[in-house]
Amino acid sequence: MLGSSSRLLPLPRPVFVQTRTYAVSLKPAVAYPRMKNEPRRYSERKTYLYNQYTRLLQSSFDRPLILFEHVDFSASRLIQLRAEIAEAVTKHAKTLPPSLAAPTPVPLGPDAFPTLTVLRTSVFGVALRDMPALDDHMRRELAKTVTGSLAVLAFPQLNPPQLKAVLRVLARSVPPRQPKTPEQLEAEKKAVEAAFVPGRRPKRQRPTPVPDLKLLGALIEGKLFKAEGVQSVAELPTLDGLRAQLVGLLSAPAAQLSMVLGEASGGKLARTLEGFKKSLEPETQEGEAPPS
Question: pLDDT per residue over 103-125, tens digit each?
Fold first, then answer.
């Protein structure tokens, strides 16, 4: 029972904390009345990032940009991931067969390695909105693709086998997260209940972050590809391989004709023509006498 001197204390008001979001917004900038038609001044850091992201989007017409969603990556883990990407590119370059232009392996320069850049989605949205080379439909699709923290892997040129090697290394280095089973959730709940002591504050334990990397899509030659399209592009041969296949297809009929004419020289010409004539004649049916 409450005493006469006791008071009912009001309940504390809920505190609303802003949660950081990673959505890419394409809405125009808000013009506040206090600005008095003056241009908004941005900090040096935001201006630098805006110019960097603009150049990155402009380069997507010449060099592919692979989009990833990264979660719980520390600075040291990102450095390790960049080293693994460089190692994968170096190993892939050693497996290439020698050519007439470079009979011996040429060491790779700093411009031959792809660069992994972590983007700020808010500034990236402004750069995407102000990019005139991309149409409105592509901007909206690209904005819908980004649902979390964003990272871009920029390749110096389109090299599908190299892209496949890098994607294989990334999938092996950062495997996808597996959802917790009901048994694991039940075990965690029981462990929390067992550690509870009345009147004592529970000890806070910071969970160990598990990095996760998810392929979102790519910008290749000014076109947006989904994750499945990126995997299909990675299965293509190189440009030199496609040229070799095209030359082989064009030169195959001439080589076959030359071989036939070479075998049909001299006395073989009559036998070749006779065999060709018999192959064109209809075959006689069984029991039917051949024409006289």
Answer: 555 566 667 889 999 999 989 99
223-226 β-sheet, strand order: 115-119, 150-154, 65-71, 212-220, 223-226
Q: What's the predicted TM-score (pTM) here?
A: 0.70
Encode pLDDT of 119-172 as tens digits: 999 899 989 998 888 888 888 888 888 888 899 999 998 888 899 999 999 999
Amino acid at 211: P
